[in-house]
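Repro:
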Amino acid sequence: MALAISATTAKAQDQQSAEATQETEESDDLIVVTGSRIASPTVESAAPLQILDDAAIDESGVTNVQELLLENPAFGTPALSRTNSAFLTSGTGVASIDLRDLGSNRTLVLANGRRVVAGIPGTSIVDLNVIPTQFLERVDILTGGASSLYGSDAVAGVVNFVYKKDFEGIEANGQIGLTEQGDDLRYQANLTYGTNVADGRGNVMVHFGYSNENGLLSRERSNTQVDAISDIFFGGDVNAERDGPFFSSFPPQGRFDVAGTPNVGDDFTFDPDGNLQPCFTTNGTTCPGGVGPNGFNRQAFRTLAVPVERYLFATAGSYEISDYVNLFFEGTYSRTESSRIIEPFALESGGGTGIYPGTGRMPIENEVNGTVLVNPLVPAEIVAAAQDTDGDGLRDIGFQRRLTEFGPRSGDTTRDFYRFVVGFDGAIFDDKFNWDVSYNFGQTSENQTSSGQVNIQSFQQALAAQADIDDIDGDGDVTEAICINADARASGCVPVNIFGEGNISQDAIAYIDAQATFQTKITQQVIQGNIYGSLFELPAGPLGIAAGVEYRREESEEDNDALTNAGLNGGNKLGDSFGEFDVLEGYLEVKVPILADTPGFQLLEAGGAVRVADYSTVGTVVSYNGTLTWQPIDDIRLRGTYSRAVRAPNIDELFAGAGQTFPSGLQDPCANDGSGPNGGVTATETSALATACRAFAGVNENIAANGGEFQLVQADIQGISGFNLSNPDLEEEKADSWTVGVVINPRSIDALRNLTITVDYYNIDVSNVIAAPGRAFTLDQCYNNADAQSCSFVTRRANQTSTNSAGSIEFIDAQQLNGASLKTEGIDVTASYNTSLEALGLDGRLSARVAYTHLIKNDFKQRVDLDADPSAGEIGTSQDRFTANLGYSDGPFRIGFTGTYISSAVTDDQFCVDCGDAVDAEFYLDTQLNYKVTEEFEFYLGVDNLLDNDAPLIPTSAPFNVTGSDTAADVYDIFGRRYYTGVRMRF
């Protein structure tokens, strides 16, 4: 893409306009624009470059610059945002960006041309919450590989946030806004002050910023109040009405299995009046007598958009030590606070994180001093029906229970970000060369506390209860229940009553409750030096050259509490992580003017760069690029680039501790091969898949128990877990990137001299991609292709539990490998026009710009020898997107409109067969009106999503659905129409 809003505020709507070019050409100042280290007198770039200036940022009304960037069709679905991070174990409230949908780790984020420490441990993902939006002079967006100039991670491109320079005066603004439904209140206040010092030899600027976004809960909107499902799981219309509730089978009153089977129909539960009933149903159907269904609505506790509160301080300055040496510095501090709530914890007796992971059964009889005692808290009807299903001679039950007495699970996260840069720059050799050296230090620390989970060991002790017939505790009450284990009683154990909603006492909660903690620290240090200038004059102009060296060191650590490490708090088992690496790099760039001011060759210029980096992890890597610019006439400029970019593996990919996850949407090949009446493998089938399935003893037990066919229940499908594993032997990724484009600026036609049209084709092919094979892929390779390595990552249950069937999948692990590939290609078209309306008898000016992207291909291969999984045209990677701006100004009055279009899309073709245009196209319209009361005071108001478009409904289990939103909340607007107003003051 080559849309550029001129770097000068007065030309906010011009795209490399003739006027902007003329201004820079007539200036003696040389500028460095992202995409080249060589200074030049123009903002023109051989690579597709977009420049957003401070006026565009102001007129967007955004709180976080991420919101503005995501309107640009060059950016894909963000890995992290306010609307998709509520269910994450870390990263809540982080704002990231992703150029070309190649992954946030493949987009390099810079501040003033220098690296920024990551916001997510073990990665290179920068949290845009740390960017002081109102302190920005401009944002440079370079698409295409740029590793030869900036190093690793610049595979998809570079986003460079450039802060204000040499600012004098005071600039302040305040803004407040909320949705039409009166929620998600947002407000911000910012103050920037700058002054010259030492008779103009120095300048100091400081910026203070505060913003608060209150957040939005699922229950606050009618369309997400109920956990629901539509009829479009496998081929229906996504835009159809919902069929009905999709409630959880973990109810607050509990359900209790006495038969030792996964079938929930014969489980005991309690009706709304607290009466015990020997039947449980979840959705739709009722028990005999019309009681039920008994499921739980999770949406009442889920979060649509997490609240984020930010405090920002930024400073920058320079001081002229001598005619040839300047001192400069930058400093930024950001504190971000975010929180979330999700539904109360769902606890079960079995399963990988259950109270009794071995048998999955809770003993309701316990042998104490040779006497078998019944737990007095268990209802008599359940005791009478219970059996000894695990063969230990004692009756037992299985249970599933929503722990509403503990309240919703909640998490509070605080991130502190520090970054400072100090350095010197100047000129040498009669000002033919400029140089700079700098030291850049950055650190991000995160502290997270979570509540609502339980200590599994303490819960198990509290479930082992007996009547205090001997008055063991000495309080005179021989009818009360006490914990059987004396050591547990000494530690404060109180029996827990899980039978019926609201029956878990506060004393029991105090004993069982487990607060989780998570601390991280990421540190980055960079020392670099650069020199750039003109080596000598050629007939067509000066030969430009730039060179530099850089040393970088990265460290990252993650520390979970002990219960989380062991998987004993009822949640995912997560290991701690620590890793570090360093790299020494050097680069050289040249720009060679070949022809100029010659018929057919107003300009012919070639350029190239090479960078060599020595990593402590992957050794020596090389990146390079080549560029060509040909301007046959003043009105037309052709350009092309080729680059080899690299991305070294990040710390988490190399060194992260094993992390447990619970994937969704998986289908067990043994239950879906189509051979049996219900689709499962049979005892007599002779296919290779059937043979592979029956190699597991648990599968044979399942077949025998189900009349000769392998069958699963819902708990088996939803109960698959697995561990994500790092790999210290990873190699670097390599990417080949091509761009070919034309810039048309008809300067020779006076009426069109402010019109600029660009067309760019891009093609990015990433090989040796670091990715963990998908779990569905692992299953396919194991059972359909007899791949022993894939089978080693699959674990099946050897025996039946109260929750799960024998032979059902318990774990599918996924390890980072270098075997995948990514490829994307498309076409960007932009147009920009700015004109006076004098010819129409009006005093105002009209400006318009459009940025359009057509995505031709976005393919991912799990392995290079396999077919690609194409995602172009799927939700989040729609084939056609554009953003259009129209503005009118007349004296103190300005009004602008921004329209964003996302074409129709389907769900993932690996999930949905023959879905068609499952999600309709969306168009969002925003507007802002500004009025300058005086030169110093400006008032504005705006409306986002003016048409009040609702986000499309997407199935609960679809891969694009963000939990709690019933849609792709990171793609579509979930807030609806919203208003904001504010003031700006400049002195």
